[in-house]
What we know:
globular; alpha/beta; 210 residues; 8 strands
Amino acid sequence: MKLIFLGPPGAGKGTVAQKLVDDLKIIQISTGDLLREAVKKGTELGKKAKAYMDAGELVPDDLVIGLLKERIARPDCQNGFILDGFPRTIPQADALAAAKVVVDKVINFNIADAVIISRLSGRRVSRKTGKIYNVNPGGIPMPPPDMPKDELFQRDDDKPEAISNRLVVYRKQTEPLIAYYTKKNLIINVDGNRDLGPIAAEVKKALGVK
């Protein structure tokens, strides 16, 4: 099963994907993770992508698609995958189709801006493991009680002013994909304003997964 998770930053796409990969026996692919991995390894694509990321700009389509093609070609993607964070624009969706990547369904997470800002502003990253936690009450996952506070840091793009800018970019560049995939009869809409457990259950039910 080949899926796209579509929705604004902070909609819970990555967390819900993590809950589904075991049941579906497929791989979650986050282009954000691919980009950060390439930057960390210092690959040629990673060096080019870093210049755009440091400037707060979107990485050009050809770079993202190059990384994505490399990832999809790995053996662990034979059973399918969940694309989390890609495509972000209609040209990227067209390029994905041109690359003959067949998509079975597109899960669209509808969520209010206030919920997004609350979720993202509570995110913290472990300096040691890179794992993401949420320090808000009831956040998923909460950091371990014995984890030193100085081990966690807040990414610049999770600060309120940056979140507001990310939402503007999403509305302008990514939201048109809802109509794009609706025309292809691929969209499944889910209410992203709830806890992530019920959202994951609804997605599984819509896909016919027990």
